[in-house]
Amino acid sequence: MSASVDGPPPPTTIDLLITDTLLVTMDAQRRIICDGAIAVQGDSIVAVGKSHDLRARFQARTLIDGSRFVITPGLVNTHVHITGEPLTRGLAPDDLGWEELVFGWLVPAHMAHTEADERLSAQMAALEMLRSGTTSVLEAGTVRFLDPVMDGLGEIGIRARVGQWAWDFDPATQTYPGALTDETVSLLEDELSRYPAGAGQRVAAWPVIVGHMTCSDTLWQAAKALADRNGVGVAAHMSPATNDPDWFLARYGHRPLRHLSELGVLGPNVVLTHAVHLDTDEVALLAAARGCVSHCVTTALRGAYGAGAVGRFPEMQARGVTLTLGTDGNNDSNFHDMMRATHLLAGLYKDARQDPRLFPAEQAYECATLNGARALQLEHAIGSLEPGKKADFVAHDTHRPEWRPLFNVINQLVWSADGRGVHSVWVDGVRVVENYRCTTIDEDRLLAEAQRAGEAILARSGLTLRTRWPVT
Ligand SMILES: [Zn+2]
Q1: C-alpha dihedral, 415 to 419 to 423 to 424, nearest 10°
Q2: Which domains does the chain have, with CATH numbers?
Q3: Which residues in the chain show pLDDT less than 50?
């Protein structure tokens, strides 16, 4: 063979190459690559490695000098009310018990939303998430107008799993009327058939049920069966406070997760949100089922749930429950910056148990990336920077005081930085945030519309803004 044939192969032409950067891969070895590079073709990562290697292998249509950045996988937020609360952010006082907050404030505000409000609301939530480094979200199940919400999410470009508001409890009779159950199961079937998750869909439906005590055994089992058949998961709220255990004990004589276990509806594709008030039996059942929990640390703090005092999250983590993070609603924790949530997870149990070994920064960061990906049933596609995975990643700007000096990048990500340092974000290979601005929508217009729509919702809801200090 001639020398020319033996030489290196010609470079492959690709869409994007970012070089000379610091990569936090979250791959199986958890490699952190200095002088790193990431190569993207279409919506996928094709290579991750040292800059000099990838420069030789690829010729890119867009070449970015990444020396200013730390690049991480996009964060995964597993519980966000993208409707109902983003347009009423901070309206509810911060000293309410759970029932007064939900039924006195959240539900009236939620019911005052129009279809256009819900689309706008979903985009506002997505904007806040994208701008702070979250690329994938599992919605919390309060959407009333699914189609405009899906349309709005599609436009802004976040990866999302969304379900319509679904429950079948009749508070007047304290029963689960069969007709309502049938109607709710039909609703779940319909949304799954219209928004399937197959073929790498960025936006797709899940059976997201309200949970607590609002869902019959039949609805739980139908949701789980539908999820299994469609390769997706089920999400539901459970046990933020003592209400749910008290209710299940009174009605069934056992606690909620014992009940769900006996129904056969726990599993790796079931994400239970909150799970603060579990006993040791419930933790064991959840671990045996390899279940997922969305821990909304920020909500627990604001809602005085007692996570630090009674939450068994360190035990869940140790026993193999897939522990993930959510930020809930804008009147429950009031922000969707997952970096702040990760920081709180890393700190809360160290303090509460007086044990600095709990939730080291690396483990907290896994909860926000790999564990979230597993919970969304997207472990094969997101959560780490590896060839073959979706090009969902975040460029953190190190030209900021909280980022310098930079020695231990994971300590920096969890303990020093927050989402305000997110410079750019890619989802499916599309740069949806560039130089601190969302590229897919007009941010100024969206923020102005959010203020107008929020004021109109407040007026229609009959709620009155309450402040402790005089507003003149
Ligand atoms: Zn919630």
Answers
A1: 110
A2: 3-73+384-438 (2.30.40.10), 75-375 (3.20.20.140)
A3: 1-3
